[in-house]
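Late entry, evening session. Most of the bench is empty. Finally got around to the prediction I had been postponing all week. Sequence below, unchanged from the version circulated by S.P.
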Amino acid sequence: MLNNINRITASINHTSNYFLELLFPPICLICKKDTSNMPKNKFICSDCLKGLKPTTKFICANCSAKTINGKTCINCKNNCPLDRFFSLYPYDNETVKEIIHAFKYRFIKDLAPTVDKFTSTYISNNDITETLSAVDFIEAVPLTRVRFNWRGYNQSELIAHGISKIINKPLIYSLKRKGLLSVPQAEIKDHIQRTKNVKNLFTCKSQLEIKNKTLLLVDDVYTSGATMQECARVLKDAGAKEVWGFAIARG
């Protein structure tokens, strides 16, 4: 009985998608090419995907100096709560910027599998699977309840879930936002002001679980680093051994 219901539901979904594509033919987010004939990813065409190659360089989370396997450089390790940092693309890449914007503000949740492929390629190309095996838990930078309800999902959590499947490490939800930002981070250009804006914005609710553990902290974009570094500081204060950062793009 249950199998019949599942088959009927799948058939209805397939038919609905067929008629939706007839009414609203899918096009590539980047070049606007018709993607209705593509079997899987209809949001970004194969030509645009070919031009996206994750970086093979590692740079310090704090000063952008070249480092080994994402380690925070010797000049910054005493004043940066992130012990390592990984990012796939520069945020000035217009294709990457459009993908992230669609993921966050056009509510295209189905971009998550495409982003997972980017992440998998990055990890494989940079041969950091063994390095990431030292991670105990994966944590996404949390959203406010208001923002989560508005979007319907936390894009950073979707990215973190993809990484979890790739490196076979569990997600943890130890961070919690204590309130709303007085001003959205995206509207603040000054680095010092951005740091002040997120000060004491997060709290850790799972201190026993993360004590002496290494956490991989995930966000979609790392610009000034203020938000991720504040999260890392809170986790370190709560007893985490190390906190590593991971972002799809870096500004």
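Two things to note before I forget:
The chain is about 40% helix and 15% strand.
Residues 8-24 have pLDDT under 50 and may be disordered.
Will write this up properly tomorrow.
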